[in-house]
Amino acid sequence: MTSFDDWFAALAGGRTTAHRWQGEFARDPVPRSRLIRIPTGMGKTLGILSAWSWHRIANGDDRWPRRLVWCLPMRVLVEQTESVVREALGNVERLWCGRGAHAGKVGVHVLMGGIDPGNDWNLYPEECAVLIGTQDMLLSRALNRGYASGRARWPLEFGLLSHDALWVLDEVQLMDVGLATSAQVQAFHDDDAPRGFRPRCSWWMSATLQPDWLRSVDTAPQHAEWTREPCRIDAASRGEGLGSISKALRTTDIAAADARGFAQLCLEAHASLAPGAYGRITLIVCNTVERACATFDALRTLDGRTAMELVHSRFRPTERREWRARFLSREQCAAETERIIVATQVVEAGVDISASAVISELAPWSSLVQRFGRCARYGGRGTVIVVDRGREEGPAKPYDVQQLDAAWRALAAIQDAGADVGIAPLDAFEESLSEGGRRDLYPYEPRHLLLRRELVELFDTTPDLSGADLDVSRFIRSGEERDLQVFWLAVPKHRKGAAPARPPRARQPGREELCAVPFLRAREWLCGPETKTARKPRLKDRMRAWVWDWLDGDWVVAERAMLTPGRIVCVAADCGGYRVDRGFDPDSITAVPPVPEVALPVESQAQDVADASDDAEALSAAPWKTIACHGREAAEEAAAIARAVGLLPRLGELLTLAGRWHDLGKAHAAFQGAIRLEGRPDRPDLAKAPAAAWLKPPGSYRTADNRESRPGLRHELASMLALFAVLQRCDPQHPALLGPWGEALALLGHSGPTAAPAEPSAVERDILACTAEEFDLLAYLVLCHHGKVRVALHASPKDQTYRDSGDGRGLPIRGVRDGDDLPSVLLEEGRPPLPRLVLSLEPAAMGLSHVTGRSWGERTSGLLEHFGPGALAWLEALLIAADRRASRLTTTDPLLLPRTEP
Q1: Fewer beta carbons under 10 A from the terminal one: N or C of the chain?
Q2: 899 or 181, which is more confident?
């Protein structure tokens, strides 16, 4: 076994040794949810990474989760955390670079929305990974509504983030309602843990973390365990090293509207700084992006010589990426450095710079403590100036007036005592507070609290007939801080007589292009201010913007109601709205330079295209393969994953069986009719075909003779109904079908099946061998392997366009009609073909069916009750990963080789 101290030193590249708290924290042998309260500058990032990786990577302890999910409140922290993690894992030669063998190495992936070469993390559920993102991106995925992620990928990501995952909620004092949501979700998963398979726990981390922040009616049973022995640094250690740095405190007030006066104060403070080992750096922290920009403009007007930088959250990643190399890292704090940095709350955490002077607008106490941590971070002496810009309701925004009043009183008490705001004096001040005084400084009353029934409701990702979804934004952020994502693209203007221009269907944004914009501000920018009497439902005259339509798989003109949190919006570059030196700027009309398109490998691009549209067949575009060959390969991948994650043997068998049967529905005549290319193998059982062979939407799915069209056909529904058809054909009284309901159905006047059961084929016996509970799980896994049909079976908008032939079979559900059949095809090489199967839509009906027994809704409710949402989605994710990995295999199908005559 590797010693922790040796492992830590290797991760750190030999530059430092572990702090006492890091060693004590890592030696807890069993992962559990817990609190971590460590002052800024004391190595939280490396301490957390070293603890998880020592157990999971260095020593291979399978009790520890495979995925480390690092949740941060702001985007600027994501890039910095990613850099630290990549460097550390590279130092121990355990970083997986996306190529070659994954086993034994760790993938590092940023989840920020948009297409990304690192988006294949979801294909390796049995391997270790560090997933890093903001609370918007990660908490939305934990609620099965992933922001800026293709709808079909929601359950896949939900499953992998809800099971076999250790969540690190970093800098929680900035997370607002997201903190409460993280605690609620963990409590619900804890309730489900006895039925689960792999651990899921949370580490909440902040220099100002208060245990009561995690307390609610739902978390009460777990709260004592979560808060048992919180990780803290003892008072003696706080007074040593960095804890002994002196940071003088001064307070003053300047009106919120007086940007010039505030800038003048900052310049005077900067001019008074003496040169130091880490240069002359003044950090100015404003509470809003607007005031930061106004301060930056005023400073540049008053002083044209000093280097100045602007930092806030409304920049694209492509611009933010330069910050670390230019000025936002320890390497850029040299003795000759002279710089003024104007920032917002984004620098409160995770930013590794040391400012000689920190000038901060008055903020809540927890934020001020974080800002003080940026002063004299590496040693020496520093100066902190806190400026009251007004504690009335308007100037106080985005903060509460009472919070600012409490912080101002605390500052006055520190000054009256003649103390400063270094680590040790602040700790002593807080220890002296009464319980009421501590509550005043650290209040927390989340506006919304996620309930258990709401998490269960979110398990169903089926949109309603209008394409709308349950809104989860209130559980992630409050007020105007709820964002959508904007990217700018050069789209030609409309020419007279031509069709309106729009972004190409195939053009999806890369992560580097996306700029976070508060959705309410985006609505005003693109559509104009709206009142109760003056509605502005559509874009302003000069604005051109589009959002992605899941049902049609194309960009459509944006309307106000479509501009919702988490949505991706494409804006024509010539409409302005962004400056590379200022970030999002709704007043700018200068054309925005687009970010070059990200080039993805074909197989990675196929994932994005398939997940972003209801009926895209990008994952089926591959060399010719039959259902039997692809099913065998998917089953083999599923079996390998099941063994690697330690799945119970029978569950592994069911997962493997689901891999074998998952694509049987592709034998449907309307699916086979969508494959048209000269030289097409003359068979009714093709699962894969080259990209050129597929008909393009709309009208993709129709029979070879063009007599029958099935818009929006989902082959996985046909695959699932085929399992029911096997029971109907061979054993109508099977426990998963009518067996338990014979007496009840007889009382209702149903005499039961009259035809004698057919003799089952060899492959059908595998289905008949399932118990009722196993059959339901098998059917669910087969149905959900694309994430597009899962819990609800009802008609989609495309089904409403079907022209009923008057044969009495009614409208389709997801392109499948009652009475459709699947021809006899080979399902498993070396076994006889599967007989023809007739599909019934009875499982979609409500209540007890005299044909198929319990409804699909009852069956999925039973699965959720048995496994819990996290474990069921995890099993779902394992099959999806197996299918997608099998789809990338380029082996030759032996069934398509030329036959040799004897």
Answers
A1: C
A2: 181
Closest CA to 84 of 373, 355, 351, 315: 351
Two tokens at 698? 């709309």
CA dist., res. 671 & res. 667, Å (int): 7
Q: Report residue 270 as tokens.
A: 């900067």
Give the model's pLDDT for residue 240.
Answer: 47
417's torsion region: left (phi>0), alpha (psi -120 to 50) or beta?
alpha
Spell out the residues 6+ positions from residue 506 whose beta carbon is closer than 8 angstroms to its own: 609
Instruction: HSE, CB side, 13 Å, CA atoms: give it for residue 344.
Output: 23
Confidence bin at 239 (pLDDT 50/70/90) = very low
Is the per-residue pLDDT at 489 higher than 90?
Answer: yes
- Checking DSSP bridges between strand 568-572 and strand 483-489, what pairing results, if any? parallel
Residue from 47, 198, 98, 77 nearest 646 by CA: 198
Over the stretch 422-465, which tens digit does the pLDDT of each residue have? 888 888 898 888 888 888 898 888 889 999 999 999 999 987 64
533's CB contacts (< 8 A; 6+ apart) are none
Whether residue 543 is predicted with pLDDT greater than 80 in this model: the reply is yes
| Residue 264, phi then psi, degrees to nearest 5 | -65, -40
* Range name among 237-241, 273-277, 288-292 with the lowest pLDDT average: 237-241
For 608-654, strand residue ranges (E) read 625-626
Between CA 242 and CA 244, with CA 243 as vertex, the angle to 5 degrees is 90
Cβ(548)–Cβ(561) below 8 Å = no
Contacts of 589 (CB under 8 A, 6+ apart): 575, 576
| Angle at which helices 772-783 and 856-867 cross, to 10° | 100
CB 73 within 8 A of CB 174: yes
Question: Which pLDDT value is given to residue 608?
Answer: 76
Q: Which residues of 528-561 are buried (b: 16+ CB within 10 A; e: fewer)?
A: beeeeeeebeebeeebbbbbbebbbbebeebbbe
| Coil, strand or helix at 267 | helix
357 sits in which H/E element:
strand 357-361
Q: Measured between alpha carbons, how far is 819 from 726 in angstroms, rounded to an integer?
A: 14
Q: Are 783 and 813 in contact (CB under 8 A)?
A: no
Q: How many helices (H) and strands (E) does the chain have?
A: 29, 25
Q: Please, which pLDDT band fits residue 648 given cuts at 50, 70 and 90?
A: very high
Q: What is the DSSP letter of 645?
A: T
| pLDDT exceeds 50 at position 364 | yes
Q: At which residue do the structure tokens 């994501």 appear?
A: 78
Query: How many Cβ atoms are within 10 Å of 160's Cβ, its own excluded?
Result: 28
Q: Are 781 and 654 in contact (CB under 8 A)?
A: yes
DSSP letter string, 179-238 = HHHHHHHHHHHHHHGGG-SS-EEEEEE-TT--GGGG--TTTHHHHHHHTSS-EE--HHHH
For 546, the enclosing helix (H) or strand (E) is strand 545-549
Q: pLDDT over 90 for what percent of the chain?
A: 64
- Structural domains in the chain plus CATH codes: 41-231 (3.40.50), 241-441 (3.40.50.300), 483-602 (no CATH), 620-894 (no CATH)
Quickly state the pLDDT bin for 714 (edges 50, 70, 90): very high
Is the pLDDT score of 902 beyond 50?
no
- Interatomic CA distance for residues 24 and 549, integer angstroms: 51
Q: State the average pLDDT for the chain.
A: 90
By DSSP bridging, strand 106-110 and strand 95-96 are parallel
Residues 763-807: tens digit of each pLDDT? 999 999 999 999 999 999 999 999 999 999 988 888 888 877 777
pLDDT category at 831 given cuts 50, 70, 90 is very high
CA 257 to chain centre: 38
Torsional sign, CA 504, 511, 112, 592: negative
- In angstroms, the CA 633 to CA 406 distance is 63
Q: Is 248 helix (H, G, I), strand (E, B) or coil?
A: strand
